[in-house]
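Hey, resending since the last one bounced:
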Amino acid sequence: MKVILLEDVKSLGKKGEVVSVNDGYARNFILKKNLGIEATSKSMNDLKLQKQNEEKVAAENLEKAKKLGEELEGKSVTLSIKAGSGGRAFGSVSTKEISAAAKEQLGYDLDKKKMHLNEPIKSIGTFHVPIKLHPKVTAELKVIVKEQS
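The structure tokens again:
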């Protein structure tokens, strides 16, 4: 019997795959626990339409991320922190502060978890912070750290 999986089933397949299983296994396990449905022509057509819709949504998300990445290029965020002699900061600038400043200064709601800093910024200067907007799109935001007066 051919079955379309509705969820990932260990050692059988992933969600959305069409697999061939024994009739008893399908009736007593997969169909009973709602892990899959029988692969009829109607359900196969529904699966095809669902996959097309998912691809369309994924393409739209990629376009949105590319557009946001282009908008972010060349823009900068300015932060000020207390600093001692030699431009060494008393604190540090983390992705949380950068995210808050981007929302306040530029109006973009950027997720702090998508920003990649190897270590928090602990000095005065200009830094380029990579932001992963999409698995295929990474933008750079210029962060200017000034001494607080």
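The radius of gyration is 25 Å.

Sorry for the duplicate.
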